[in-house]
């Protein structure tokens, strides 16, 4: 079965520390004959984990971004009918984290820490190369999906 929706859903749960969403909205298309997810979009809302109210007036002198502890909204897109970027981007009050393509086995993470001034950030890129293909893998025709050699790290961890 080619179900693609679970992958971005699993990624979202990593960033909300096991919290359960209180709202989920989804639209998409499924192949009626096979049940395969063809494409879809979801919005998932997580409620605040504390009762601190954001200060959106002049009393907020500590930060320029109001906060609701633990709260967040995730927007997910997935599908097989188009060429997507296959990346995960997490946006927070202090910056952005982008896990770059390919989505199933990324090798680069881009961190942008918010700096003073709108649209300004301090950027850093971290690279995690995959192992080189062995001669046996090359002789067999290689991998169907790019960076699949990176699954060696997952296999070694179990």
Considering the chains and any ligands shown, give keywords for the structure.
158 residues, 3-stranded antiparallel β-sheet, alpha+beta
Annotation, overall tally of beta strands: 7
The SS-based structural class is alpha+beta
Portion of residues within helices: 10-25%
For this entry, what is the oligomeric state of its chains?
single chain
Largest sheet: 4 strands, antiparallel
What percent of residues are in strands? 25-35%
Identify low-pLDDT runs. none
Radius of gyration: 19 Å
Average of the residue pLDDT scores: 85
Distance between the termini: 24 Å
Widest sheet, order of strands: 4-5-6-7
The topology string of helices and strands comes to HEEEEEEEHH
User: What is the helix tally?
Assistant: 3
Shape: globular
Question: Can you describe what's shown?
Answer:
The protein is of the alpha+beta class and 158 residues long. Helices cover 13% and strands 32% of the residues. The strands form two sheets. It has a four-stranded antiparallel beta sheet, with no helix packed on it. Strands 1-2-3 form a three-stranded antiparallel beta sheet, with helices on one face. The protein is globular. The model has no long low-confidence stretch (mean pLDDT 85).
């Amino acid at each position: 079965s080619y179900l693609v929706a679970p992958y971005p859903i699993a990624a979202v749960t990593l960033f909300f520390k096991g919290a359960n969403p209180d709202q989920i909205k989804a639209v998409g298309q499924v192949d009626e004959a096979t049940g395969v997810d063809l494409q879809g979009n979801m919005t998932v809302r997580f409620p605040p984990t504390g009762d601190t109210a954001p200060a959106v007036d002049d009393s907020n002198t500590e930060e320029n971004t109001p906060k609701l502890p633990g709260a967040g909204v995730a927007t997910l897109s997935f599908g097989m009918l188009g060429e997507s970027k296959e990346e995960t981007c997490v946006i927070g009050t202090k910056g952005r984290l982008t896990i770059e393509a390919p989505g199933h086995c990324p090798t680069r993470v881009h961190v942008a820490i918010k700096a003073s001034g709108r649209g300004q950030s301090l950027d850093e890129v971290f690279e995690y190369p995959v192992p080189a293909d062995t001669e046996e893998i090359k002789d067999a025709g290689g991998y169907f999906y790019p960076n699949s050699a990176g699954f060696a790290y997952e296999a070694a961890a179990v």
